[in-house]
Amino acid sequence: YKNLLVQKEVTPRFVELGTPEEVRSEPDVEFRVGQGVNKQREQSKVFKLTSTQDKRQVKLIIAAAYRQIFERDIDPYVVKSEFSSLESKLGNDEINLKEFIEGLGCSKLYVKEFYAPYPNTKVIELGTKHFLGRAPRNQVEIRKYNQILATLGIKGFINAMVNSAEYIEMFGEDTVPYRRFPTLPAANFPNTERLYNQLTKQNDDLVIPSFEPVAIADRS
Question: For the whole prediction, is pTM greater than 0.85?
Fold first, then answer.
């Protein structure tokens, strides 16, 4: 027995590095988990139309749609002159919410505020923000949508987004698009956060400046 060596148990290095030096309280743990996560990543409310019989809910959903697509509330006189027919169709089950969203994107007001003043690259950034809840993924997506804009115009661009597999998966036919911070891959999150933090009317800089701007063509 004298010659029997007792081997000392060695704790693996990765275990040592992963062991905290002090006992942490629950609030401290929660703080560390939340580090670097902006409050904007937390989607506070998803607006989903479950029944057009509840007119109060329909009104709330429509207001949420205006805020998402136009980045503001819409004045009643504008609604009356441009969107009363669209609202009526939604309330009467003649169209679903997805079709209502598409109608807003194809409206004269959207064209005036988010299409006519900007080059195609900025139009694409704003479009993915409004209808997909994120910034453009990459240059490939920019090129794809630029080609659609060049050949089919703004209505073709809006149609392509709201009828995409991504839109259907995320929002279906009954949910207002929303900023998708919690579900975005890490590579897309910073650009989306910056795009949402930008005030569109005061700043028309490109969120992804590495993408060459496409000049405004004759859109008449």
Answer: no
The domain spanning residue 152 has which CATH number? Answer: 1.10.3130.20
3-state secondary structure labels for all residues of the chain: CCCCCCCCCCCCHHHHHHCCCCCCCHHHHHHHHCCCCCHHHCCCCCCECCCCCCHHHHHHHHHHHHHHHHCCCCCHHHHHHHHHHHHHHHHCCCCCHHHHHHHHHCCHHHHHHHCCCCCHHHHHHHHHHHHHCCCCCCHHHHHHHHHHHHHHHHHHHHHHHHCCHHHHHHHCCCECCCCCHHHCCCCCHHHHHHHHHCCCCCCCCCCCCCCCCCCCCCCC
Enclosing domain of residue 166: 55-197
Does residue 26 belong to any structural domain of this protein?
no
147 lies in a domain? yes
How many domains is the chain built from? 1
* pLDDT one-digit tens code per residue, 8-61: 666 676 666 666 666 666 666 555 555 544 444 444 589 999 999 999 999 999
